[in-house]
């Protein structure tokens, strides 16, 4: 289905060292124990789509989301683009007719990298 998120990948984001989730086409449920990182996944998606860290009400800056003891974080998501849901001028030459992959990385030294 066009415009749906098909995959989420996190590295060193909050409590997640390495997480790779494939999502189904329709409804998906994220379940787990308290403190297992369910809300962290949703927070990562908010950040991936451009939300400021302070607007998540979970951190003051993006580097506050870097897992304790790590130097950087990475967030990536794949969005289905069938029927050209995402316009080509938004993603430029990185556009794939089937899937658009976007990622964001942050280092503790305040360098942020946006990859599309």
Automatic annotation (TrEMBL):
GO terms assigned for molecular function: ATP binding; ATP hydrolysis activity; damaged DNA binding; single-stranded DNA binding
UniProt-listed Pfam families: AAA_23
UniProt-listed GO biological process terms: double-strand break repair via homologous recombination
InterPro entries per UniProt: P-loop_NTPase, Rad50/SbcC_AAA
Gene3D superfamilies, alphabetized: P-loop containing nucleotide triphosphate hydrolases
Cellular component terms (Gene Ontology): nucleus; site of double-strand break; Smc5-Smc6 complex
This protein's record includes keyword Acetylation: no
Domain Rad50/SbcC-type AAA, first and last residues per copy: 7-64
Location relative to the cell: Chromosome; Nucleus
Chief localisation class: nucleus
Keyword DNA damage: yes
Keywords linked to the UniProt accession: ATP-binding, Chromosome, Coiled coil, DNA damage, DNA recombination, DNA repair, Nucleotide-binding, Nucleus
Family the entry assigns: Belongs to the SMC family. SMC6 subfamily.
Annotated protein name in UniProt: Rad50/SbcC-type AAA domain-containing protein
């Amino acid at each position: 289905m066009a415009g749906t998120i098909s995959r989420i990948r996190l590295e060193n984001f909050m409590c997640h060292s390495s997480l790779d989730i494939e999502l189904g086409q329709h409804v998906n449920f994220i379940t787990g124990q308290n403190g297992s990182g369910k809300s962290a996944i949703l927070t990562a998606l908010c950040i991936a789509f451009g939300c400021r860290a302070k607007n998540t009400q979970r951190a003051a800056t993006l580097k506050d989301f870097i897992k304790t003891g790590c130097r950087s974080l990475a967030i990536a998501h794949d969005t289905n683009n069938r029927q050209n849901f995402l316009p080509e001028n938004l993603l430029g030459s990185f556009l794939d007719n089937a899937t658009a992959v976007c990622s964001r990385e942050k280092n503790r030294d305040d360098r942020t990298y946006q990859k599309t």
